[in-house]
Each structure stands twice: as structure tokens, then as C-alpha cells.
Amino acid sequence: MKTVVKILLGIAIIFLAYLCIMSIVTPIQFENTRTMREKAVVKNLIDIRKAQLEYRDQYGRFVSDLDSLVDFVRDGKKKIVSKEGALTDAQLEAGLTEAKAVRIVNSGNQREIEKNGLQGFRRDTTVVDVISEIFKGEYTRENIGKMIIIPYSQNVKYGVEVNNGYKNDIGIRIPLFEVTAPYKTYLHDLDRQEMLNLIDKAEQMDKYPGLKVGSVDAPNNNAGNWE
């Protein structure tokens, strides 16, 4: 009987020791894995921000459908203006504008070019692919779609919301967008209690429970909540 008690006591001690060790190891493992995964999530959020800003520059608004954003990056074109020379204060005061200077130079009329002092003035426009210009080989037309899928999730797309009608205090329209990746999407297969604790902590601090970039409530310079 004493032997049985000793065995059971030994097992209980080993089990309690295991629980103590895991109570220390589990949070550390969770944080290490979370940090590693969030680097990939943040990379995508930054890329989506680049694409959204380019879309806004071309169309004056943000796009509310990420599949359409992918199509824009894959098939879109971007005008690049190479500049040589600049108008002086004297030229500007004489009524010369960039548009007028370009017309004079493009006309090829040397007398007009010399008369207006535009011998070294050039404005050349070339058209390039959006994907190659803003991502510099990071994506191809075949894999650009992975930009909108949250890494380590079960093929879940980033959430997106836009507010293209927002106006500031003086009535100027400022398009806004927000792209989100909840903790539960990319941490779903890790320790459940640690994930729930992380979500609860964020909510108690009135913060978004995950990673996000931009805001549809007020301008924030399209910043991410990790920045």
C-alpha cells in the first residue's frame, strides 16, 4: 500500500512539475511564434498600403474590394515623368508654367525654346506596369494574389473597409481605408488560452485585436498599429 502511495505521489509531483514548466514555456513559445508570424502579416499590410495609395493617386479614391486591387496591380499602368531642368522664378513671373514650357519644348521651335530659356528643360513621360514599378520584382503576375491572403491563416483574406466620403473640419475630402488581420486568423492553431488573453488585453485597452493599417474613422497618415 505504501509503495502504491509513493508511486502516485511521484506521478503527482512529476505532473505538477510539468504544469509549472509549461506555464513558463507556453507563453514564451506563443510570443516567439506570434512575433515571427506577424512579420509576414505586416509585410502584406505594407504591400496592400502601397497598392491602395497608387490606386488613390490614379483614381482619387481607395478600392473596397481586394480582388479588384490585385487586378489593378497585375494589369494596371503607371505614368512616370522624368524631369530635367526647372523653371526659374523669373520664368514663372513672366507667366511661364510647366504645361506651357512642355508645349514649347515639344513643338521643336528652337526660336521659342531659346526665347523662353528652355534649352535644358525636358519632361518625358513613359508608361510602365504598376506591378513592376511599385514592387520592383517582389511579386509576379502569377503570385500577386497572395498579397491579400493572411499568412498562416486558413486561406483567409484581409478585411478591408473604405471611407471615400470623409471630410475634414474645413470640408476637404480625404479618402480613407483600413485593412485588418485579426489575431484569431493567423494565431488560430496556437495555444487557445494565450490567444484569448491577447484578444482580451487588446479589447480592454480599446485597441484592435490584431494587426491593421489605416483607419476609416479619422486620418492617421495610413499608419499601421504596429508603427
Spans of at least 5 consecutive residues with low confidence: none
Into how many domains do the coordinates divide? 2
Major sheet characteristics: 3 strands, antiparallel
What's the helix-strand series? HHEHHHEHEEHHE
The geometry reads as elongated
How many strand units? Answer: 5
Please bin the fraction of helical residues: 40-55%
Class inferred from helices and paired strands:
alpha+beta
List the helices and strands and how they pair.
Blueprint lengths: L1 H58 L6 H10 L1 E8 L4 H5 L4 H10 L2 H6 L6 E8 H6 L23 E5 L12 E7 H4 L5 H13 L5 E5 L13
Antiparallel strand pairs: 1-2, 3-4, 4-5
Helix pairs in contact: 1-2
Keywords:
two-stranded antiparallel sheet; 2 domains; elongated; alpha+beta; 15% strand; 227 residues
Structural overview:
This protein is α+β, with helices and mostly antiparallel strands. The protein has two domains: 36-75 and 134-227, no CATH class; 86-120, no CATH class. Helix content is 49%, strand content 15%. The protein contains eight helices and five strands. Helix 1 crosses helix 2.
